[in-house]
Design a protein that fits this description.
binds adenosine-2'-5'-diphosphate; 9 helices; 30% helix; 344 residues; 14 strands; six-stranded parallel β-sheet; binds (2R)-2-aminohexanedioic acid; alpha/beta; six-stranded mixed β-sheet
Amino acid sequence: KQLTVAVVGATGAVGTAMMEHLTKRNFPIKQIKFLASARSAGKEIKFNNQSYIIEEATPESFKDVDVALFSAGGSVSAALAPEAAKRGAVVVDNTSHFRMDLEVPLVVPEVNRHVLKNIPKGIIANPNCSTIQMVAALQPIREKFGLTKVIVSTYQAVSGSGIAAIDELKAQSVQWEAGKNVEAHVLPVKADQKHYPIARNIIPQIDKFTDNGYTYEEMKMINETKKIMEMPELQVAATCVRVPVVSGHSESVYIELGQEATVQDLFDVLKNAPGIVLQDDIANQQYPMPIFAEGEDPVFVGRIRQDLDNKKGFHLWIVSDNLLKGAALNSIQIVEAMLEDNLL
Ligand code: A2P
Ligand code: 11C
């Protein structure tokens, strides 16, 4: 089946990755349109060696669209995703806006593709990038050994915060080298009061703070993990940190299983898990790193160690390209899963 597709936020960091991956995966496209803000309307964009004109996203943009891939920010999704769904499009939304809505499935195909059977609002949510790579790696372990607790600290790349943050890291690196004043306008959060340099720094704030002292990013990891894994009872804690890496989120994850296991048991499970590459050979200094994960599809897992005090406890290091499995690729895989299951 060939689909008419709209990419909303086509000029952004995720939108660009979305376009590259639609081509790379030979996605069955009948027609495609590229939507962004009025600022970009009329500009040319290249897709699959052809030129297209970017259009401003409006409710009418979605007439006759089968699948709308949204990554233009929460407020754009809030306003336009229901309009797209009303016009018959299946929406895959990359923002956090609808994720915790009980009538919106939140999907990582390797974990819970079965929920795609029921899409009451015509909207499917793509989880937060740092959540996706973690649950993709934990699901096969959980299936075999159970899971009771997750404590994660993230090391997140600037591209998670969009093109402006990538530009800022690059500009600040040049400013440092030249001995100039380092200017910070974007990170940690464009809309928050203070901004700090990310070049030569790490920032323990991603998204704004909620009332309980955790940031929204941390609460997203906690709540989305429970929803996707269908484990409201799972104990989850997260600390989310921005590091001066362009793309590729890294995570140090401590887990407690439902039963005792060995490192070799976890190797065996992860070696055969879909979408996972086990990269754990310390004798040869093999472990996942963002510089090698950038541009790659899989979730890389390594540094697996048994906790020294708890035989059910394990430490893992999980790395994946946040713009790919964390965003564009997972969105495309959701549509591919629907096609395979005859849901479109
Ligand atoms: P534009 O380039 O026209 O501003 P990023 O996350 O990399 O910053 O990208 C954000 C994406 O969201 C861009 O494609 C941007 O388009 C798009 N966008 C921002 N505001 C709107 C809007 N009001 N309507 C549609 N797209 C928008
Ligand atoms: C980041 N994880 O790295 C964020 C970006 O909820 O979709 C994705 C935000 C979201 O900044």
